Structures are given as structure tokens and as C-alpha cells.
Amino acid sequence: MKTISPVFTNAPKLVITAIDCHVLLAPDFDPGMTSSAQDSFIVEIHTDGGISGIGESDANPWILKACIEAPGTHTMGLAIKDILIGQNPMEIGEIWEKLYVGTAMNGRRGMVIHAMGAIEMALWDLCGKATGQPVHSLLGGATRDRIIPYASLQPAGHCFEEYRDALVESALNAQSLGFRAIKSEVTMNGPYAHGGMNETYDRHTEVVASVRKAVGPEMTLMIDVQYLWPDAATCQSIVCDWAEFDICFLETPIWSDNIHELAALAESAPMPIAVGEWLATRFEFQELMDTAKIGVAQPDIGRVGGIGEAKIVCDMAKERGMKIVPHCWKTGVSTAATAHLAFVTDHCQFIEYLPPQLCVERLRRELTHDELVLKDGTIPLPTKPGLGVEIDWDVLKKYKVA
To answer: DSSP letter at 292?
Structure first.
């Protein structure tokens, strides 16, 4: 199986000695909120040389912890933690394959892969720190010195007017901070409707129109509807009128497993269709690319299986002439990993990024000290070793629940 490992000549000889898993939860979390950033899963990988790496994944943190720590009972369902102990952390690709094959009966897709994503991310961070290089250098070197972030905006409100006005206000706030691109979540119906709302589909058009009018024609605008419509025909009946709003892409309009419905929508919609936030491994993305014919692939580094697996997905997209816009809805750990991937991926159009001023969730505001900064609407090339992000361990301790 094709895997990706760091590119370096001289590296210290290290052995993995321990793995620590941290389940974090904000004390004021709202179970009715459509946001997975109220909790986090942080993993640390330690070595005999005193060098450690950190990783994160966007999935239920208690389940991820169990995926890593659960004992194995046979050769097709080994324990991730046991496989890791004693390994050379510099051999990331080899470790990933051992984990994939050794846990196949437990995983192959889903939560075990999401857990492997956090582990693999931590290995890249560790290798960068051990060699004094940023992760983008280990991936072969940056191909540009700046990337463009978009502000991912989730509105508040429990009625149409509150929702519309909150989304317009957040869009204007992002514009005032210098963002050149925004993504607005417009979800007032469907399985993940915000605030228990149940507005008509036409009302969604009204919100999109209000946001576009507020930010003007120069702002790049993406729309996320969070699996709002049941099928391609229903979606098309609404978005056929959205061409005038110049939408960069429409994210998750229908269920991502509805491959043939996605293909029908991709053929008829007036804007590119973006999908992929929940997918695990290159194999699921191949189906999206070749059968669903989506326009934009959205691997989430933790969920897809790590930085190397995300890079393979990016390479697959390039072969097919597709854009990459990674999904990232966690803390600065995941954002840093996403940025390093983007710097070595020319066809990565944007990355998802929120500065503290736009964050509602306290973990995203407080957990990390980030190297990434918004400057003139772009993020300059990071230079610190590894992911270039530091955990505030006092904050981690304060919010750790398991």
C-alpha cells in the first residue's frame, strides 16, 4: 500500500515509549449545538529521546481514546498502543500501514481511522521537532509562501431574523479582519438544523442573498448547508437560483453516501459541489471523485487518517483536475496540520481558519498558541519545527475529563 513518510537525510534514532490520550470537554458545552469544537481529542507520543509530538482528531474523543487504548485479542484486531510502543517514529508510512493492517477487523474505515489520524499527525510533529524542520519541509518543501484562509461562520439565533442578522454580522466582522473569503453555514432545516429551526428552503435563499449583499461582490463566498436536502432534484430546485450569488462551492448539500445523487447534482448545479469532511481513507475519496464527480474534495486530516493519507487524497484530486479545500473544525493543532498540507499542495484553494475573535467555542480560543496569523488576508509560511503549535497545558488540564 502506498504510504508517505518524511523526507530527511540525518535524523536521530528514537523509539516510541508512551502514548497519552486526552479527552477534553468545555464545561458549558451545548448538546443541541451543531459544533464538534466543544470537545477535543489530543494525543501525545513520547520517545526515549525526550522528544514528543501532538495530534488531534475531530470525532467523539471517548471513542477515539478507546480505539487507541483497547487491548487486542488476535492478529486482525491488534491494539494501536501496543503496535506503537518500540517503533521508530521516523518511519511514519511504515507505522501507518502496520496500524491499518493490524487493526483491519476493528477499523478499515470510521473511528479507528480517525484515531490513527491523530496518531499520524503527532508523528509528523515529533519528526519535525526531532530534525528542527517544519512539517511542510518534511513533506517535500513548500511550493508557495502564503495561503488564503476562509472564515467559517456558524450563526446564532432561533428564528429566521435572528439567524439571518447574526450571519450577516459575522460575515462583516470577518471582512473587517481582512478575510478575502468566507463560508456561511445556512442550515435552518434538515437533520442538523441550527437551533431547532424549521424554515422553508426559500428562506435559505433569502439568507444567502443577504450575506452576499452585505459583503459585496469581491468577497469569495462559500455556502455550507450540512446535508440539508434529501436528493439532487430537491436541491437543484432551490440552488438553480443561486447562480447570481457567485457561490465558490456548495458544501454537503446531500448525504455523502448518496453517491449517484451527488453525481446527478454535480452535473446540474450552477456551482461546484464540495464533500468529504466525514470520509476515512483514500478509498472513500476515490468513489467521491470518480463516481460522484464532485468539484471540490474536503479531506479532514484527522478523520481521513492523517497528513500522509490527506496528501494522497490531494494527489488524487490533482490527477483529476479537482480543487482541494480541507475541512478543519477543531483547535489550532488541526489547523496547523492543515496549513502545512496546504503549503505543499498548489491546488489547495483555501483552508478553514478562525482567529480567536471569531471563535465561539472556548477550546479553540484557549487551548493552543499558534504560529499562524492572518496578514493581508493570507497566512504566511510557518517556520517553527514540527506543526509549530504549542498546547497550553494548564488549559488542557482544566478541560480534561478523561
So the answer is: I
Instruction: Determine the Cα–Cα distance for residues 208 and 204; give it in Å rounded to an integer.
Output: 6
**pLDDT for residue 280 is more than 80:** yes
State pLDDT tens for residues 391-402: 999 999 999 999
Cell 517514529 belongs to residue: 89
User: Are 82 and 106 in contact, with CB atoms under 8 Å apart?
Assistant: no
Please state the CATH superfamily assignment of the domain spanning residues 138-390 in this structure: Enolase-like C-terminal domain (3.20.20.120)
Domain boundaries, the chain: 16-133, 138-390
| 311/307 Cα distance (integer angstroms) | 6
Terminal CA-CA length for the chain = 35
**Which 3-state string (H, E, C) describes 180-240?**
CEEEEECCCCCCCCHHHCCCCHHHHHHHHHHHHHHHCCCCEEEEECCCCCCCHHHHHHHHC
Name 121's Cβ contacts closer than 8 Å, sequence gap at least 6: 53, 54, 55, 56, 57, 301, 302, 306, 307, 333, 334, 337, 387
Q: What is the mean pLDDT of the chain?
A: 96
Cα–Cα distance between 339 and 384 in angstroms, integer? 13
The reply to whether 16-133 and 138-390 are identical in fold is no
What is the phi-psi region of residue 190: left when phi exceeds 0, alpha when psi lies from -120 to 50, beta otherwise? Answer: left
Whole-model pTM: value is 0.97
DSSP 288: I
CA distances from 232 to 217, 236, 260, 290 (A): 27, 6, 9, 18
Render pLDDT for 45-58 as a digit per residue (tens, 0 to 9): 999 999 999 999 99
Question: What is the CATH code of the structural domain delimited by 16-133?
Answer: 3.30.390.10
Buried b (16+ CB within 10 A) or exposed e, 227-256: bbbebbebbbebbeebeebebbbbbbbbbb
